[in-house]
Amino acid sequence: MTKAIAATGDGAEPTKVVLALGSGGARGYAHIGVIKELERRGFDIVGVAGSSMGALIGGVYAAGKLDEFAEWTKTLTQLEMIRLLDVAMSEPGAIRAEKILDRIREILGKTQIEDLAIPYIAVATDLSTGRSVWFQRGALDSAIRASIAIPGFITPTIANGRILADGGILDPLPIIATSGMEGDLVIGVNLNGPASDGDWGGGDGIRPVDELVGRIRRSAERLRAPVNSAFARWAPSLMEPEHDPEPSSHEPRLGRLEVMNRSLELMQAALARYQRAGNPPDILIDVPRNSAKVLEFHRAEELITLGEKLMADALDAAGASSVVNA
């Protein structure tokens, strides 16, 4: 750590922080915890760049709606997520995500990026040209929608003749996008960190099969209707354990989308390591990749708490004191 971290006590100016928030699906709830811990300690967040879930959380924060968004996410159950995850039969993605986006639009309102209180960049990927696209102007909800199109899960969006998908494809940790933002520290939050031995209650398949999802799957198999069959193919990858639940078997059991998701995570992790080697942040937070699966959006509260802890540990290690203004 080469830069000093100033406290806001005793008349000192608060340390100005720029955030690079990475991609990683539901693990992105940890971004909320990171932001809350920084605010609790008195840091001044002056800019944010995000890919995928990082673009969503960063945009909601920049619009001043983070608390409302966080409270909503804590109400989401597995049943509610099944309702919101819009199955797409004939589109290049398992779900459309429009029901979720409609709720996010209600929270954000008609907000333009250029009207936000702090600089903000949402990173997406142009699938036609193979280049990153930085949204710095225009409708905030449209920028977020383009950035969160996780390959194979959420359908891409088309804007100005471009097919736009998840920003994490090329920029899983968008540190370069923060280069034009003025701050004392750059903090990067990587959602594809090394797997932890901790019991996170999910991620690598230690979570038991949810009874409700089991019933839906069995009904789908009996009915064999097109929509139900499609759900039956991808729902197990979302909810089921990756390992055989029988104690006598230790062979891994991965669904098709889970294989694709794991492959994407490994590629993104390698790309993030390469990118931050050339542009290292001042503080790096590694959220373990096995802390949650990509679509476990019903686990907001525990992942927010995880983000708070990881940020607190990093600040303590860097010598930053908690700030309490009397």
* Alpha-carbon Rg, integer: 20 Å
Q: In sequence order, what are the helices and strands, one letter per element?
A: EHEHHHEHEEHEEEEHHHEH
- Helix proportion range: 25-40%
Instruction: Name the shape in a single word.
Output: globular
Query: Count the helices. How many?
Result: 10
Distance between the termini: 29 Å
**Relative strand content:** 15-25%
Q: Could you tell me the number of beta strands?
A: 10
Q: Topology, please?
A:
Blueprint: E1 16-21, H1 29-40, E2 44-51, H2 53-62, H3 66-74, H4 78-84, E3 93-95, H5 98-108, E4 120-126, E5 131-135, H6 140-147, E6 152-154, E7 157-159, E8 162-166, E9 185-193, H7 211-223, H8 226-239, H9 256-278, E10 283-288, H10 300-318
Parallel strand pairs: 1-2, 1-9, 2-4, 3-6, 9-10
Antiparallel strand pairs: 4-5, 4-8, 7-8
Structure in a nutshell:
The chain is of the alpha/beta class and 326 residues long. It contains 10 helices and 10 strands.
Give structural notes.
The protein is of the alpha/beta class and 326 residues long. The chain contains ten helices and ten strands. A hairpin with a 2-residue loop joins strand 7 (157-159) and strand 8 (162-166). It is globular and about 50 Å long. Mean pLDDT is 79; it is low at 200-248 and 322-326.
